[in-house]
Amino acid sequence: MATQTQTPGSVQQRREVPRRSAGWGRRVRFARHAVQLAVVGVVAWILAQAWLGGSAGEVFCPFGGFETAWTWLTTGRTVSHLHSGNLVLAAAVALMAIAARGSFCGWACPFGSIQEGVYAVSRTVGSWVPPLGRWQRRPAGPVWRRVDSVLRYGRYAVLVFAVGGAAVTGTLVFRDVDPWHAVLGIVEFELSLAFAVLVAVLLLGLVVPRPFCRYACPLGATLGLIGKVSPVAVERDASACLGCDLCTQACPMALQVHEASRVTSSQCIGCLECVAACPSQQALGVAVALPWPAAPRELVTVSASESQDGAR
Ligand code: SF4
Ligand code: SF4
Fold first, then answer.
1. Where are the alpha helices (DSSP H) in 58-176?
2. Which residues surround ligand 2 with Cβ inside 6 Å?
3. Which ligand is nearest to the CA of 247?
4. Are residues 14 and 116 in the same domain?
5. Domain count, the chain
6. 23 and 45 belong to one structural domain
7. Burial of 275 by CB count in 10 Å (0-12 exposed, 13-18 middle, 19+ buried)?
8. Which residues span the domain enclosing 297?
9. pLDDT tens, 218-273?
């Protein structure tokens, strides 16, 4: 629920978020990590099956469903190598985005989980090696913030390339550079452009959380756009906020949560790390509200533009 209060020179919106119980953050983190581990385990099992029996892992890619749906709608053709299972998965993740924004990315995407794992290992090593830890904790400078805000448009360029290329050629043009395709084919030990991209993403993931999700994932771009209609979002009650910035520091997508009233950025992956990190039980929470009419610009700092999303 939102109410507006007027202070000299500014308008503030009070968003009353549900009070969280003690231990809420720990339980949500545990649940999310359990789901992530389970999905990665299923993928590992599928890869083992592929290795033993030669089945194609591509059938489990929801983005393939979006590629073939667009191709079929615009040309009447389907895309080679794809399956009706891709369409079912695409419909499922689209429904998930309508219900809870990018929560598929934050909870279930195995490639997002792998990137998170790489960054977690890097942070652990950083805590043992003080110079590395200091470098990892340094605040983002203005140059990096600008570069980051421009790079975030990259995933829309990749989306246009992948979906448009599939519609024009009838083939999966993105597959040749898709790091997830390289993961699915890893048992074949094939050195390819996609494998080189995978290595680059994992190396960058040592210093930037979820770099592929932030800058290049066409599925994340699609779900972020669909999720704009979702009534569910993280909200902050400024009157209960301590101004500690821990929510922003915890956000793997480097969104400026501590300045927002309602996090409606298409980059939010619904991981709830921000809420789990918040020391105030009433400052930050998940709330349901109609996506329209949009709140005034100054009240939704995070969603005002992708370029304001900011970087760590
Ligand atoms: S704003 Fe919160 S829920 Fe969204 S990506 Fe950042 S930490 Fe996760
Ligand atoms: S972590 Fe909580 S108290 Fe701290 S700035 Fe964010 S919303 Fe406010």
1. 62-75, 84-100, 103, 110-128, 130-137, 142-151, 154-169
2. 236, 241-247, 257-258, 277-280, 283-284
3. 2
4. no
5. 2
6. no
7. buried
8. 2-29+232-308
9. 999 999 999 999 999 999 999 999 999 999 999 999 999 999 999 999 999 999 99
**Are 163 and 196 within one domain?**
yes
Domain end (from 225, 247, 266): 225
Ligand 1 binding pocket includes 276 (Cβ within 6 Å): no
Q: 252 CA distance to ligand 1 centroid (A)?
A: 7
Please give the distance, rounded to the nearest whole angstrom, from the Cα atom of residue 261 to the centre of ligand 2: 11
Over range 160-169, report the average pLDDT. Answer: 87
| CA 37 to ligand 2 centroid distance, Å | 28
Residues 126 and 73 in one domain: yes
Give the pair of three-digit tokens for residue 180: 């997830």
Kindly report the protein residue whose alpha carbon is nearest to atom 7 of ligand 1: 251
Of 65, 60, 70, which Cα lies nearest the Cα of 111? 60
Residue 287 tokens, joined? 């709330």
Query: Same structural domain for residues 75 and 176?
Result: yes
Last residue of a domain, one of 182, 207, 225: 225
Give 77-124 pLDDT, tens digit per residue: 777 666 777 888 899 999 999 999 999 999 999 999 999 999 999 999
From the CA of 257, give the closest atom in ligand 2: 6
Instruction: Please work out whether the CB of residue 277 comes within 6 Å of at least one atom of ligand 1.
Output: no
